[in-house]
Structure to design on (298 residues):
């Protein structure tokens, strides 16, 4: 290869499409969510991510009985909860318990199986307040689906926040790396996850991996990627795997979630809280849960 070929500029990622929530529903009695996928029939385009639920922003009146989701099982993937407003308390059958608030992230690896509950934190529920969060499901490769469950509480203070050039905003590195800043999340396959705040009229250039899926979710605001049409509140911009260069430009002050990762080229079988590779494995998961093999909350 001649010298000039090796220094060609990185190709720009094109836009596959812009998607609005495909469904809206209540998870338990505490999480009003708008779903971006899988409801939009996006699987290969967003792998290794399996699900994006956008919760709120919604005000909850004061109560002595914290709302949320009671005991339920998971197997075969990871759950990532990012809190923007509000306080969420978690408890699981592996003995983990914790509270996450604004800026915090919980990264729970269900893998071979875990039972947990997610409730509004008691004191926060007593006072009432606005809940605003995202829950992502991240797939695990077949080789890791039955590994031991794990739990990472990633507090705001441990997430590198990079001030962008020219006062354009800030980017928090939850997973992967950005300009030499490494995110604290441990992942099974390569993942970049950025919490991005961008000011009106400003832009940021991201260099992501060639061949990785990339999508950008606009929580609030107006933004475009590589000169695409503008996406607004609760819309998802999905890019091609080809290319690595992504320029995000905000038309209004915007809050975005940048998700990128390596495609997991394996069959997906899903049923409720279980995501495996075959239907037989799903049936086994249901049997194992009923037999108490994933534990219970005491």
């Amino acid at each position: 290869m001649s010298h000039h070929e090796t220094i060609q500029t990185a190709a720009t990622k094109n836009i596959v499409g812009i998607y609005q929530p495909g469904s809206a529903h209540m998870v338990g009695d505490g999480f009003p969510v708008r779903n971006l996928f899988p409801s939009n029939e996006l699987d290969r385009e967003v792998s290794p991510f399996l699900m994006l639920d956008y919760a709120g922003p919604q005000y909850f009146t004061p109560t002595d009985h914290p709302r949320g989701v009671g005991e339920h099982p998971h197997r075969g993937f990871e759950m990532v909860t990012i809190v923007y407003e509000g306080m969420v308390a978690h408890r699981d059958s592996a003995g983990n318990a914790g509270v996450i608030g604004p800026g915090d992230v919980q990264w729970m690896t269900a893998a071979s199986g875990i039972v947990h509950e997610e409730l509004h934190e008691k004191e926060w529920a007593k006072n009432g307040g606005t809940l605003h969060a995202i829950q992502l499901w991240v797939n695990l490769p077949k080789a890791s689906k039955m590994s031991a469950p794990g739990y990472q509480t990633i507090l705001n203070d441990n997430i590198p926040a990079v001030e962008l050039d020219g006062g354009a905003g800030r980017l928090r590195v939850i997973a992967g790396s950005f300009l030499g800043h490494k995110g604290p999340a441990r992942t099974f396959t390569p993942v970049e996850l950025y919490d991005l705040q961008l000011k009106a009229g400003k832009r940021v250039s991201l260099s992501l991996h060639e061949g990785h899926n990339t999508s950008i979710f606009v929580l609030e605001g107006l933004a475009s990627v590589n000169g695409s049409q503008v996406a607004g509140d609760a819309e998802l911009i999905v890019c091609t795997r080809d290319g690595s260069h992504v320029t995000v430009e905000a038309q209004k002050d915007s809050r975005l979630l940048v998700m990128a990762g390596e495609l997991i080229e394996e069959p997906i079988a899903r049923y409720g809280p279980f995501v495996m590779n075959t239907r037989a494995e799903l049936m086994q998961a249901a049997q194992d849960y009923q037999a108490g093999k994933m534990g219970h909350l005491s």
Summary: The longest helix spans residues 279-290. The helical segments are 3-6, 122-127, 279-290. The radius of gyration is 19 Å. Residues 221 and 254 are 4 Å apart (CA to CA).
